[in-house]
Amino acid sequence: MTIEYNWAGNYGYRAERIATPRSLDEARDIVTTSRLVRPLGSRHSFNDLPDTDGVLVSLAGMPQQFEVDLDWRTVTVAGAMRYGDVARLLNEAGWALHSMASLPHISIAGAIATATHGSGNRLGNLATAVRGLEILTADGELRSLTRGDPEFAGAVVSLGALGLVVSVTLDIQPSFEVSQRIFENLPWAVALEHFDSVSSSAYSVSLFTDWSEESIGQVWLKARVDEASAIGDTLFGATAATEPLHMIRGISPENATEQLGVGGPWHERLPHFRLAFTPSNGEEIQSEYLVPRRFAAAAIEAMRGLAGRITPILQISEIRTVAADELWLSTAYGEDAVCLHFTWVRDQDAVEALLPAIEDALAPFGARPHWGKVFIDRHAVVPSLYPQLDDFRDLVLRYDPNRVFGNAFLERHIGV
Ligand SMILES: Cc1cc2nc3c(=O)[nH]c(=O)nc-3n(C[C@H](O)[C@H](O)[C@H](O)COP(=O)(O)OP(=O)(O)OC[C@H]3O[C@@H](n4cnc5c(N)ncnc54)[C@H](O)[C@@H]3O)c2cc1C
């Protein structure tokens, strides 16, 4: 019986119950006495990744934690805290994170568990800022891992398979200001021929399209105010917007972060959406595939070839970039990536009917699906896309030999 739904309402959790422990001891009691457990974050994933037939554990009721270490330039926070809340506290203290996802509403532990990312040629995903983790494992032990430990690179993007991430230590840097501008109608030919130049034209760059138009509808540039910018009122033939915009035409931009080049704190410009509002559109499903950036033009062309099937069930697509990293289950493991994102209308059957065609078209490029979004993988190629998957499986079996934190998603896509 469905008890609760995810944020998008497209997935009902099968779990017997959702537990919200208020202390580490309460959380320990749950993991050591339950047969099946899964960690639940802010419920922003679109698939059955967090689910279980046993107990879902939300750490949102645990004590907050926020400790800046000036010597190490890190902040240690409770895993269930939202990025937006951590970012506000950090900025007040004069510090910043390197990147943010499109929305600030997601939990820290839930976001890093799936390699959630923002955009930027030089910016790794959010998990790359992790310097340390504390994980409550099924035997009740609290295990600490720090960058450089042999198991660390496997434990950050964990898909919740190792235990409950109770606290996370993140790299920080001095606070900085960002100004955001939107450019309209970037010709496809220019975008494809000069993709690297376009995507490196600011600290963070996102291209929005519905694939059907003659040009790319919007390019969102987020520039650091302290970095010299040579951008005028045109960008490779696209022209600067003169009023605030939502990336989906016809929707009010009131939930979008400030635009028109007005400088402001990093955490109020790097996300596309404001913390106090519903992000994106609300009624939606999302999918996203990460492709090695050297294939960007060919992969984008492949999607344009499917425009006739994509556009009718699409709200908007975002094309963005993320830098390579060494985290075993990161979707950018070993390769700078271009991310092909789809915000669909909330029609699960139609989306699932189309995804095999998209996945087939992207298969030649070794596309890795976002772990937290809807994908199919009917040819079971996902395991072959992660060179260190065997090491991850071994890690899981060492941390959780009885597979208390196992579920159908992990069996299907990870084989453990
Ligand atoms: C409107 C919207 C916009 C989005 N924008 C982006 C974007 O810009 N970039 C991007 O990459 N993704 C984006 N996403 C996807 C989202 O960032 C990921 O699905 C993310 O994992 C959600 O985090 P969550 O806290 O909601 O985790 P949940 O969805 O609740 O869980 C996700 C995974 O994290 C695990 N987990 C959660 N908490 C813990 C914990 N304490 N310890 C261990 N494991 C834990 C769960 O078990 C599960 O495996 C977006 C989603 C939505 C709804």
Could you write a compact summary of the structure shown?
By secondary structure, this protein is of the alpha+beta class. It is built from eleven helices and 20 strands. It has two domains: 66-175, 2-Layer Sandwich (Uridine Diphospho-n-acetylenolpyruvylglucosamine Reductase, domain 3); 177-369, Alpha-Beta Plaits, CATH 3.30.70.
Structure notes:
- This protein has 416 residues and is of the alpha+beta class.
- The chain is 21% helix and 25% strand.
- The protein has 11 helices and 20 strands.
- The chain is globular, with a radius of gyration of 20 Å.
- The two termini are 25 Å apart.
- The structure holds flavin-adenine dinucleotide (FAD).
What structural keywords apply?
alpha+beta, Alpha-Beta Plaits, 2 domains, ten-stranded antiparallel β-sheet, 20 strands, binds flavin-adenine dinucleotide
